[in-house]
């Protein structure tokens, strides 16, 4: 019988303990909320948002700035505008809040939050901003009203501002597409330049949480300067272009077109396809330039070496087409027109260097040699007179008889050999330059 009565008593005791615990928690929660509300009211009594939070108004407030770069969204070297998302952390000490908190009696509360519209805030601006100068940017009025400043009982105030900003940069596209740019985020004060002393404890704004850009490698340098009437904090974001895409899609195709263009002089003149081959490559080069003109830097501050390279390649292609037209014109020119003497001497010199000289028909007939063409190229430097002719033939054919006669076709052949040598030399130099350029980029990216 007693056991049956004891079991309900235990259940009743557990229910009473649960109710008591709930009341205690509710009472303590209500007490903490009321204490925090009373603390806010006590701290904000006769608080001025205009005056600096120092008892001695002649002393400046040390404001510590920190910047956490979230990502570089976009950067235009032509316009010099960098778009980035970042978080600004602003810290300062409020002597008024500290003293009032100590005298309020709510010393068991260590941290509280106060709306930003009710307290003093340092006026901080970005000097080289491209859109809105202030760091306090909000999406809407509601977002502004819900922003707050976190205070500690020691008077330390902390506020975080998230924003997407645009800043202007000094660009230098001289070494495009391996160019580097420095974009400064310069923080200054305007109205309270004597009352605020800007400082920073940052050494770098790029960390593991920063999203890397697909086009740029991001590094940073942080500096701070202060004088009697002016203080600023500068966050320098260094952007180095990743050149693999541009080298693959811009530099390499241009060099391939240039190398193939130099092969035009290896197409035989008699085939009649040399001019069409050269003009087709020139048109291909021009069409290719129209497709990449949007990615080329159009700024006139500094002309990039890549623009100079493209201009040289375009003139080189035009030079090849002009050379092809010249050789074809001379090759098919009438043989009745006499070649000027100075042009004969130049032609003979070029053909002599290539060990091929034109020989007159009459000379060949006198030597009892079969005649198949109007002009025959004979390798005189590889053949000695004693090995080819007999002593009697050498007596008949003297120097005057062996003097070659140059026609316009010989001039065309000589010009063709000169242009072929020029294009071969240019192609070899271009290939060596590309190899050295590739090695330099590899060392630069790995370093």
Question: What topology emerges from the helices and strands here?
Answer:
Blueprint (H helix, E strand, L loop, with lengths): L1 H42 L17 E16 L4 E13 L1 H10 L6 E5 L9 E2 L14 H5 L2 E5 L3 E13 L11 E9 L7 E5 L15 E11 L4 E11 L2 H19 L11 H19 L12 H27 L9 H13 L3 E3 L1 H6 L9 E3 L6 H4 L2 H6 L11 H39 L1
Parallel strand pairs: 1-8
Antiparallel strand pairs: 1-2, 2-6, 3-5, 4-7, 5-6, 7-10, 9-10, 11-12
Helix pairs in contact: 4-5, 4-6, 4-11, 5-6, 6-11, 7-11
Task: List the defining traits of the structure above.
CHRNN, membrane, 12 strands, 4-stranded antiparallel sheet, Acetylcholine Binding Protein, Chain: A, 6-stranded mixed sheet, 447 residues, Methane Monooxygenase Hydroxylase, Chain G, domain 1, rod-shaped, 11 helices, alpha+beta, 3 domains
Structure description:
The chain is an alpha+beta fold. It contains 11 helices and 12 strands. A 6-stranded mixed beta sheet has the order 3-5-6-2-1-8. Strands 4-7-10-9 form a 4-stranded antiparallel beta sheet, with no helix packed on it. A two-stranded antiparallel ribbon has the order 11-12. 20% of the residues are buried. One of its GO terms (molecular function) is extracellular ligand-gated monoatomic ion channel activity.
